[in-house]
Design a protein that fits this description.
By secondary structure, this protein is of the alpha/beta class. The chain has six helices and five strands. A hairpin with a 4-residue loop joins strand 2 and strand 3. Helix 5 packs across helix 6. The longest helix is centred in the last third of the chain and has 17 residues. 22% of the residues are buried.
Length: 199
């Protein structure tokens, strides 16, 4: 019942930026583990990449918490060992959003993942941050998902990182490369059929 109103709210924010603030897409990416990554790699013809036959998860997994500012198309991220509500709230407070944009009203587009709805998160955001939740089972409406697809393709596919430091370096190199070429996001679905789905 709430699918269409929620979808239209998100698309309205994408197409018509609010004059009093910024639209920022937030999501988690991962888990980042050290198993060999499937996919193509940039290798000379005739020299196939050999993947390790076995691996062990002795170093645990990591999670990437990221945000995408649609006004600049800049992506910021932090890699953490967990992705529960304290880590999510810490990212909102200190690292990526509030400290970088003091005084601005923020519209955070995010999915319905449990830590996003933990009472402590909306309580802290009540002042000048609006949480805009996606419709259920519609996480692909979050613009940052497209960026995650590119991140996986360019930084992780066809790799076999030996440690998290090496993997984090690959992720960081890609994000820095991407941000230097970023263009503001505009006109997501003004004339798209997604505005008028068949009911």
């Amino acid at each position: 019942m709430e699918f269409l109103p929620k979808m239209r709210r998100v698309l309205d924010l994408y197409d018509t930026r609010p004059p009093d603030g910024r639209v920022i897409c937030v999501d988690e990416f991962g888990p980042l583990n050290l198993m060999p990554g499937k996919g193509r790699a940039w290798r000379p013809a005739g020299r196939p990449v050999r993947q390790r036959a076995t691996y062990t998860r002795t170093q645990g997994v990591r999670h990437m918490l990221a945000s995408l500012d649609l006004a600049t198309s800049g992506m910021t991220y932090r890699i953490r060992t967990r992705k529960r509500w304290p880590q999510f709230l810490d990212i909102l407070k200190l690292k990526m959003l509030r400290r970088r944009r003091p005084g601005e009203r923020l519209y955070l587009v995010m999915d319905n993942y449990g830590p996003h709805k933990r009472p402590e998160v909306p309580a802290w955001c009540a002042d000048n941050i609006e949480l805009v939740f996606l419709p259920t089972n519609a996480s692909r409406l979050n613009w940052i998902e497209c960026e995650f697809t590119a991140l996986r393709y360019f930084a992780l596919d066809g790799t076999g990182h030996r440690g998290h430091t090496e993997q984090n370096t690959a992720v960081g190199d890609y994000v820095r490369w991407r941000n230097t070429r970023a263009q503001p996001k505009r006109h997501f679905a003004i004339n798209s059929p997604i505005r008028h789905p068949i009911t």
